[in-house]
Amino acid sequence: SALFNFQSLLLVILLMICTCTYVRAVTPRLIDRNKEGFLGLFWMSARIGERLSPYVAMACVAMAVTILIQ
């Protein structure tokens, strides 16, 4: 049902980016071995989280404020 609600879709994407970045920091071999195919989405999410971490953090704060206001 998150696919039909834009705010929920953004929340799922942000949580996936943050989770993949954390998992790669703790156990890099788990994420790095799957760079291609469907599981490559997790590797790409981890890279986005590493390279754009200030923007991802601001997006997470903005999403938290939006959810608290509603």
TrEMBL record:
Alphabetically ordered keywords of this record: Golgi apparatus, Membrane, Signal, Transmembrane, Transmembrane helix
Family matches, as InterPro entries: KISH_domain, Ksh1
Localization? Golgi apparatus membrane
Q: Mind telling me which GO cellular component terms the entry cites?
A: Golgi membrane
Q: Does the keyword Signal apply?
A: yes
Kindly list the residue ranges recorded as spanning the membrane: 52-69
Record's keyword annotation contains Membrane:
yes
Q: What is its main location?
A: Golgi
Question: Could you tell me the membrane topology recorded for this protein?
Answer: Single-pass type I membrane protein
Which positions carry the signal peptide feature in this UniProt record? 1-25
State the source organism's domain of life: Eukaryota
Q: Which family does it belong to?
A: Belongs to the KISH family.
**PANTHER family, sorted:** PROTEIN KISH-A (PTHR13229)
Biological role: Involved in the early part of the secretory pathway.
Protein name in the entry = Protein kish
Q: What is the lineage of its organism?
A: Eukaryota, Fungi, Dikarya, Basidiomycota, Agaricomycotina
